Amino acid sequence: MAVKLEHGVQWRRLAKFHRETLHGRERRLVKIGAELKRVRECAGLPQRVAEEAEALVKRYFDLVAGFPPKVVAVALLWTAAKAAGVPRPLEDFLKCSKADESRVRRVAWRLKEVMKLGRRPIEDYVKTLAARVNLPASVVKAAVELLERNRRVLAGKNPWVSAAAALWLASFRRLGLLKALAEAAGTTTASIRNAANRMRV
Predict the structure, then answer these.
(1) CB 162 within 8 A of CB 147
(2) pLDDT tens digits for 129-143?
(3) Longest Cα pair distance anywhere in the chain, in angstroms?
(4) 182 exposure class (CB count in 10 Å sphere: 0-12, 13-18, 19+)
(5) Which is higher by pLDDT, 11 or 61?
(6) If 74 and its partner were Cys, which of 29, 99, 117, 169 is the partner (CB 3.0–4.6 Å)?
(7) Where are the domains of the chain?
(8) Which pLDDT belongs to residue 3?
């Protein structure tokens, strides 16, 4: 609806603010998008990383809006490369940009924290795996308690592997169960053993 003179000064001011905010956001997205494209091509990243980065900037625009497009683009691509399963050292991206490293790390850390909040709680993975291999509620409870005690050790690790390791430990390292858990979690027995060895019982 167009804002007319009879709507009053306050309405006109609100409409102007809305237009400027909207156009400002669009302009910023265009600048970030151009920088994403340039750095992606320079670093030789697959297209799926750029698509992941574009999805991240739209989802978390308010979080990164206060930083320069150069910084945002590098932080997004670095984060997106990890999320897409093709992690690269930050130096690979910084070679292609004049972005400040400390600011890039700050934006990437913010993204990581907010993305973590959107993930399923580890307890969900434990319950799903326990149901797949028919483990009782008492083992699930013990596994969740183990994970609580080891949150810092397991931060950033594959949640399926961590959940399988906790269930295996809570079942007193039964050998037959190890293989079943590996199959249910889509991982290897070696990965579960390694995760179990890192955990404090």
Answers:
(1) yes
(2) 999 999 999 999 999
(3) 79
(4) buried
(5) 61
(6) 99
(7) 5-117, 122-198
(8) 39
